[in-house]
Amino acid sequence: MEHKQNRSKEIVRVSWRGIAVNLILVAVKAAVGFAAGSLAVILDAVNNLSDALSSVITIIGTHLAGKAADKKHPYGHGRIEYISSLLIAMLVLAAGLSSLKRSVEYILHPEQTDFRLISVLLIAAALGAKLLLGRYYLEMGKALSSGALTASGTDALFDAVISAATLVSAVISIWLHVYIEGWLGIVISALILKAGIGIVTETAGHIIGKRADSALAKQVRDTICSFPEVQGAYDLILHSYGPESYFGSAHIELDEKMTVAELDALTRRIVPKVYADCGVLLTLGVYAANNDAPDAKAIRAAVQTAVSANPMILQMHGFYLSETDKAVSFDLVFDYSQEHPEQVIASLKEALSAQFPDYQFTIHLDRDFSVSD
């Protein structure tokens, strides 16, 4: 909890710094734009004002996301940060469309500008400030796992591109008396729109239910398997309820002779260890392993051979043989590109039944995102 509070406070501090920088840039660019009669510079100033608004959205979103879990939202409010990122993306897209519209109008109805050397120097300084701010946002966004800060960083870097284009057009207008702001504006607008679409796609993935980072999945699995009693960890599922807020479930394979008391003691060690090392609150299920059963080794070897022959089958787990019921069951994980896994399962079941007619086979189609690429 303390880590999350510190993270939220740092995101807010970063956002306030961004607001301060953007408001200064708004004042500078507006002054230059009106003095030179440059529509591009004035629009750039307005764009910086929207960036300040984006930071305000980040602050509000971070505050709301930090609210404790309640009856209606038992997993907390962390996903509000994704909504903040989406709102910022909408601002980026709006800025891109507005810039495109103004650029076309400028091409159709060009206006002569009157840039001076001091104006060029101020635009260059604003360009440097925006580049630094963009890198700062991106670095802090990565360090704090904040999609909103990352989105603001991407937006800031594209603003720097706008300022660079404005600077180039200003220099060309001073030395060659050629006015290219409109054409540059179209190119820049396309880049801004591309960035906005990218942010929307990334954020929508989180809201819909994006696959968790493979490195985190591996860390969770390795932590579980670090306990000597655990023979394997499978069916790992992770649900994100905001950056750095994960709930998950997994099955662990244990010797069937383990008592309930021993199982309880083991899970009470595993769950806090995973939370401390990985930040994931985990629920555990159990697969019983009876590898010492007389027919288990032979049948398991046959299953492994059949599975290995099909590259679309990524994993077999949960194998269990019941001598009393003469039944064998196990789970298969397929590559997502396998179109009809049920048909493969039916074929495998038929082959195994023919090879071991005394046993009834039950094969479950399973999903484990940590092994499916």
Verbal overview:
With 373 residues, the chain is an alpha/beta fold. The chain has 3 domains: 2-208, Up-down Bundle (Alpha-lytic protease prodomain-like); 211-288, Alpha-Beta Plaits (2-Layer Sandwich); 290-373, 2-Layer Sandwich (Alpha-Beta Plaits). 63% of the residues lie in helices and 14% in strands. 35% of the residues are buried.
Q: Could you list some keywords that capture this structure?
A:
alpha/beta; three-stranded mixed sheet; 10 helices; 14% strand; elongated; Alpha-Beta Plaits; 373 residues; 6 strands
Return the average pLDDT rounded to an integer.
80
Which structural class matches the secondary elements? alpha/beta
CATH architecture of the largest domain: Up-down Bundle
Overall body shape: elongated
End-to-end gap: 33 Å
Number of helices: 10
Radius of gyration, rounded?
29 Å
CATH fold-type name of the largest domain: Alpha-lytic protease prodomain-like
Low-confidence stretches: none
Set down the secondary structure blueprint.
Layout: H1 2-36, H2 39-65, H3 80-108, H4 117-144, H5 147-175, H6 181-208, H7 214-225, E1 232-240, E2 246-255, H8 260-278, E3 280-289, H9 296-308, E4 313-322, E5 327-334, H10 341-355, E6 360-366
Parallel strand pairs: 2-3, 5-6
Antiparallel strand pairs: 1-2, 4-5
Helix pairs in contact: 1-2, 1-4, 2-3, 2-5, 3-5, 3-6, 4-5, 5-6, 7-8
Briefly characterize the structure.
This protein is an alpha/beta fold and 373 residues long.
